[in-house]
């Protein structure tokens, strides 16, 4: 089974994360397949824009703890979304956790159905949202970012819109796609360069530090306990 389902309609290519059995966890294989699909979209002059969606009830549960990508591969994927010379529209109708929020942060526009919900759950397994800060912190309202980085609480679409993670409800999707179809390829490419410039500055400045920080955290005893507890469906040792 392909891990990224590809469909096309009138210049819009939809890439749907397609591993519902793992809640679309970001495995090394899924990251590679998504990167390859994005590369193909970037080179195809018939593609005006890309929709990044999902099958099943979860957009992404975050990193696959059993078969994770390297931090560098995930950074490369995030940067690829940001640098793609076509607009990328995230479309979420289910749950988004941890690294999945980083993917949404890399998208140019994010639309969410009313049943979508979100959580930055890294602190609950002994790590932190290090690498995904590259795409999230330049876009999120600082007080909201602090709350959700520190608590791991679940939040819904209205709060996601207010904090800058989500652009609008998914009822806006048809109109946005028609607007992108009406825009010139050159205009879209150059407009995207303007709105992503500051995010790319963050990659240049912080990517290596955040990759090293993430690797150190994941190798720590606390993280091993947190991930083991998660996989065993029990509370970690530090739970009060």
Question: Can you put this structure into words, describing what you see?
Answer:
By secondary structure, this protein is of the alpha/beta class. The protein has a domain of 167 residues: 2-enoyl-CoA Hydratase, Chain A, domain 1 (Alpha-Beta Complex). The strands form two sheets. The protein has a six-stranded mixed β-sheet with strand order 1-2-3-5-7-10, sandwiched between helices. It has a four-stranded mixed β-sheet with strand order 4-6-8-9. Helix 1 runs parallel beside helix 2. The N and C termini lie far apart (42 Å).
Which key phrases capture this entry?
240 residues; 2-enoyl-CoA Hydratase, Chain A, domain 1; six-stranded mixed β-sheet; 47% helix; Enoyl-CoA_hydra_C; Enoyl-CoA_hydra/iso; Methylglutaconyl-CoA hydratase; lyase; EC 4.2.1.18
Number of H/I helices: 9
In what range is the share of β-strand residues? Answer: 15-25%
Largest sheet: 6 strands, mixed
Structural class: alpha/beta
Shape: globular
**Radius of gyration using CA atoms only:** 17 Å
CATH class of the domain at 4-170: Alpha Beta
Estimate the mean pLDDT confidence: 97
CATH architecture of the domain at 4-170: Alpha-Beta Complex
Strand neighbour order, sheet with most strands:
1-2-3-5-7-10
Low-pLDDT parts are none
> Could you say what the CATH topology of the domain at 4-170 is called?
2-enoyl-CoA Hydratase, Chain A, domain 1
